[in-house]
Structures are given as structure tokens and as C-alpha cells.
Amino acid sequence: MAHSFSNKHIVIAVTGGIAAYKVAGWASSLVKEQAVVDVVMTEAAKQFISPLTFSSLTGRAVFDDMFTAERSGRISHISLGREADCLLVAPATANTIAHLAGGQADNLVTTSILAATIPIIVCPAMNVKMYEHRATRNNIALLREYGYEIVEPETGAMACGDFGPGRLPTWEIVSKYVLRILTDSTLAGHHVLVTAGPTREHLDPARYLSNRSSGKMGYALALEAFYRGAAVTLISGPTTLPSFPGIELVEVETAQEMHDTVMSRYQQSSIIIKGAAVADFRAKHQSAQKIKKQDATYVVELEPTADILAELGRRCDMNHQILIGFAAESENLESEARRKLVQKNCHLIAVNSIVSPSTGFGADTNQVTLVHKKGATPLPLTSKEKTAELMFDYIEDHFLPLQTG
Ligand code: CTP
Question: Is-contact 369 334, C-beta < 8 A?
């Protein structure tokens, strides 16, 4: 199940906001990724960007009035919302949102959407006051109720000089919502909890003990679960990776914070993946003041942190919850993973080497072996995104559906 736009048919409905020009870049990206893109525009949108821009980028005539659409013979306003894989409304103005909430079909965009049978994603973008107005909030709530996916706007400086929520999100974000629609919802109804990144154990206000985990593998797993339709919570130690609004992100710093956050949330999750590189030790005493180098014989006394995965192995209902751990090893990979599988009572341990540059901390690629009760399944050396896909394929094939009763 590769995530790509290749050979997919996307309809973009552009309405009259200043952010309309940004959507030309989206159309261009989709075309570069081999998608077929049809653009439908309102009259107001044409004040901001020319249909010629879109037709030049997509190589297809733009639908910009009801009657040319009918005359083109290629496609009708009814089939625009039926034959494609996804209809993306961007930017969606307060006015168009109000018309959609009221079920009006007064132009080619609203008519296509009212008649549509395919998944619809709406990206509101407008002045912050318009966005925060109760009428708009209520209209957006109605669209959600009708089953439209809403990608909430970003907060920032607006073209009009105001500051607040209302900016069109980037393609980096919106494309993930589109890819989710193009992916089979094999994890719909599931809640997936993923931990990622390192923890930091403080010695004094300036220093901490940590490890080289980048969080990339855990973030890739969280995104893969999102694509497959799960509700996802990502509990992350400090990383430099961008957050994504489709995934609930809980940021923690220490092993204790990660422990407490996981324990307060694991019960609602059907799949729990402990991807984080949790510190095994913390300083027994943290200095409130910066430790000075005159203290030449400074010795750090360490105490163990709680083993979160082992505690989950004791607490989880193994018939209804799937528990997966990672093992980052420098030698005896499989036997170490098997020891952890048994000691921590998990369904699966994904083990990888941390001494190979292509699989260790911070690498973009990984090569994991899935160690389970029946043996070991090696996955190929590939990107962390592809590894996440293969891991979920394995989880779905071997552990789903969960036993009931
Ligand atoms: N883990 C955890 N809490 C800890 C330590 C580890 O939940 N305090 C989890 C990690 O998230 C990972 C798994 O346990 O999923 C294995 O982590 P790893 O560091 O490889 O193993 P350790 O338990 O630390 O064992 P060892 O030090 O013997 O390698």
C-alpha cells in the first residue's frame, strides 16, 4: 500500500480568497506526482487567479462556469464530484462555507459539491474575525456533521494585517489528508498510541542525559496509522520534527513524564507502539543550581527509571490491545529482542542495529526484524516511512481483528 498520487484523480474547487494563488502550487505538485487534476473555480476566485494559470499547470480546461462545463461534453458539474477520488475545496471562503452549510447550489463549485458522492476536504481560509465569528464556526460544525473533512487553518499574519487563525495550511499538511482519503481505512475505529524520540534526564538547569534518537521512526509510524484511518496520539520526547495537526501530539521531556502520560492514556488505545528511546537511568539528585567545574570530583549517582513497556505488558489486556516494542541493539539483535519480548510481555519487538549508519539513530532508513512468538520476520532495508507501512501490514495480518469477548 504505497502512498502516492499517481493515477489518482483530484478535483480542486477554488473559491475567492487571497490564498487562491497558493493552490496553483498544489495543483502543480499533484501533476508532478502523476495525478489527474481538474480545477473548478468561482467567479470570485477568478478575481484572484486566472483560470489560465490552472489550465496551464494541469493541462486540462478549467471549469469556471456552469454552462461551459455542460457544453464541454467532457464532464458535467454532476460528474465532477462523482468520478474523481477526492474533492478538495481550497481556499474555502466564509461565503462558500455558508452556502455549503445551507445546502445552496448557486455556482459551479457549490453545485458540484452538493451533488458529490466522493470524499470532500474543505480548507477554510479567511480573515481571523470572519473565521472566529459564531456563524462561521457553526457552519463549519455543520459541514463536519455532513461528513466533510475540515483541515483547520493555520495561525499567523494575514494578508490584511490581522494576526490569528485563518491562513491556508501548507500543501505539506493538506496533502496528508488527501493521501489518507486515497488509502484503505484498515485501521478505522482504532486508536493508536505511539511514543517517539529520546527523553532528557536533567542533572542541573544546564545539563541533561539523553540519547541520539531522532524520533523519525515513531513519527513515521504515527503518520502511517493516520493514513490508515486511525485516531492517533503521539507522545514524543524532544525532537526537531514538525508536528502534524491530524495527529494528537503530547510533548514530554523526561522518562517520568512519558511514563505518566502513557499510563493516563493507554487504556483507550487498541494498538500501542513504544518507539521512544526512553532513558534507563536518571540522576538520583538533580542540582537546583548549575554545577561548577571547581567541583572537580563530580560523580553522578544514577537511579533506574520506570520501564514503561514492561509496565504496559503487565497492565494491558493482551486480547484486546496489541503491544509493540522496539529494541535498539549493537549485538545479538534477535536474542536480545526475544528476551525483551518475553520479559516485557509484548506481541512484537521490532529490533534494529544501532551500529550500522543506515539503520541507527538519526538515519532516514531502517532495517528491522520483527521478533514474535512464532519466530522472526526480517523486513528489508528501506526508508523509515516504508518500514512503518510494512510494520502495519504485519500487525494487521497477524494481530487484527482483535479477539472480542
Ligand atoms: N522502554 C520503556 N521504558 C524504559 C526503557 C525502555 O518503555 N525505561 C521501551 C522502549 O521504548 C522500547 C523497549 O522498551 O520499546 C526496549 O528498549 P531498549 O532501550 O532497547 O531496552 P531496555 O529495556 O533499555 O533493555 P537493555 O538496557 O537491556 O537493552
Answer: yes
Is the separation of the CB atoms in 63 and 113 below 8 Å? no
In a domain, 99, yes or no: yes
Instruction: Examine residue 200 and state whether it is found in any structural domain, yes or no.
Output: yes
Handedness of CA 289, 292, 296, 301 (dihedral sign): positive
Protein residue whose Cα sits closest to atom 24 of ligand 1: 280
- Structural domain containing residue 173: 9-182
pLDDT tens-digit map of 327-354: 999 999 999 999 999 999 999 999 999 8
Grid look-up 501490514 returns: 393
Structure letter (DSSP) for residue 240: S
Based on the fold, state whether residues 141 and 245 are members of the same structural domain: no
**Which residue among 195, 340, 368, 391 has the greatest number of ligand 1 atoms within 8 angstroms of its CB, and so is best to mutate?**
340
* Residue 4 belongs to a domain: no
Instruction: Please name every residue paired with 13 in a beta bridge, in sequence order, or none if there are none.
Output: 40, 89
**Cβ(18) to ligand 1 under 6 A?**
no
Cα 137 to Cα 143: distance, rounded to the nearest angstrom: 10
Q: Is the pTM of this model over 0.90?
A: yes
Domain count, the chain: 2
